[in-house]
Design brief:
about 50 residues, 2 helices, extended
């Protein structure tokens, strides 16, 4: 039987700032893989089927 999915931890403080800056820099300095991954994540988030 599969394990239940645990909630994703919420980023706070310096971790949240660093994550946000990395997202902004991903668009400013795109590596092909990272840029495509970020775009895919954003599009999936916007669809929200639930």
């Amino acid at each position: 039987m599969a394990k239940p999915i645990e909630p994703t931890p919420i980023l706070k403080g310096e971790d949240a700032k660093r994550f946000y800056e990395e997202l902004q820099n991903a668009e400013a300095n795109p590596s092909v893989k990272k840029s495509e991954f970020v775009k895919e994540c954003i599009s999936l988030y916007q669809k929200k089927p639930f």
